[in-house]
Amino acid sequence: MTPVPTPKGQQRRKELIEAAGHLLATSGPSGVTMRAVAEEVGCSLSATVYYFADRDELLAEAGRYNITLWAGRAERVAEKAEAAGSITTVEDLVELLLEAVLSREAPLYGHYVTLLAAGSSAPVARAYFTGRGRLNSAVGRVLRVAGARLSAELAITIVDGAAVTALSEGRDVHDTARGMLREALASEAG
User: Fold this and answer.
1) For the HTH tetR-type domain, which residue ranges apply (predicted)?
2) CATH code 1.10.357.10 for 7-189
């Protein structure tokens, strides 16, 4: 990467990363090109080439940006759960887990299609794998407040699996994930 010494340069690089993250989330890795990112920001193609050595560097930054957003959402939910001090019902825990893992801002079909496609891009897959620890940690904090023994990774897997099932069958994602989480938590308690 070319050093970015000025505040204006840092701002431009940030804008390019955010645009690349948006394109990655909506179009998958194939939609993230130097040209597409430049068009998204409204700058010249030469700007992307100046700030990023190649497309792989841009994809890696886009992946880091997106996983940071997802982990940040889960961390805000964990902070809310910890501030409450306890989670006394399975229903409350399920709703907090859904809030932590499922985006309400992005269309879920597109999210999961692009998430699956991300595995075809080594820079994006590495970024998601590296950043996944923050997401797992935040979801784990929610589960600890509730005293649940379910691991964060399993809770996230249940939600993601429910989402893919619901999307492929034309069902409501949140309702399907809610039901599967209830079942998993009931099995854990029983």
Assistant:
1) 10-70
2) yes
Q: Residues in the chain, how many?
A: 190
**How many C-beta atoms surround the C-beta of residue 23 within 10 A?**
23
Nearest to 104 by CA among 133, 77, 139: 77
DSSP 8-state code for residue 29 = G
Give start and end residues of each alpha helix (H) in 52-89. 55-84
Task: Give the residue among 114, 122, 107, 121 at the shortest CA–CA distance from 28.
Answer: 114
78-123 residue pLDDT tens:
999 999 999 989 999 999 999 999 977 667 887 888 888 888 999 9
The predicted pLDDT at position 106 comes to 67
Measured CA distances, 32 to 20, 36, 123, 157 (Å)? 6, 6, 12, 27
Mean pLDDT (the chain) is 92
Q: Which two tokens stand for residue 152?
A: 């964060």
Dihedral sign computed on CA atoms, order 123, 18, 22, 178: positive
Element spanning 162, H or E: helix 152-169
